[in-house]
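Q: My labmate handed me this sequence with no annotations at all. I'd like to see what the chain might look like in three dimensions before we decide whether it's worth expressing. Could you predict it?
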Amino acid sequence: MQNKPKVLFLCTGNSARSQMAEAILRHLGGDQFEVFSAGLEPKGIHPLTIRVLEEIGLDTSGQTSKALNTYLGKIHFAYLITVCSSAEEKCPVFPGMGTRLHWPFDDPAAAEGSEEERLAVFRRVRDEIADRIRIWLGSLEKDQ
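A: Here is what I predict for the chain of 144 residues:
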């Protein structure tokens, strides 16, 4: 049995964007990948992250906010995908890393305003991440 490629989504806080990407790829990629997320300075999952993922039927009950060093030197990732510019700048290069990609998204956790205004930002970023993952999955299928 062939091992599934492992994908790591990396952000600064592992509270919103990387958590969304983890849940969305796990859903859209089916059994194609093993999916992980981590942060350089994990802060816990933002409650609005859970809310906007549940709105589209995604279960986040198994997800937790984790530090990058949870995985460094322990797991070989076929793909490391940074989802914020800070993580892209600060992420170390480490042995055994496969393809490194950078997909910058706005930080919904930094959104201000009423709860409805902040939810709108979380939803927009969630949808942008889902669109980017769909495009990436399509490009992988073409390469096969």
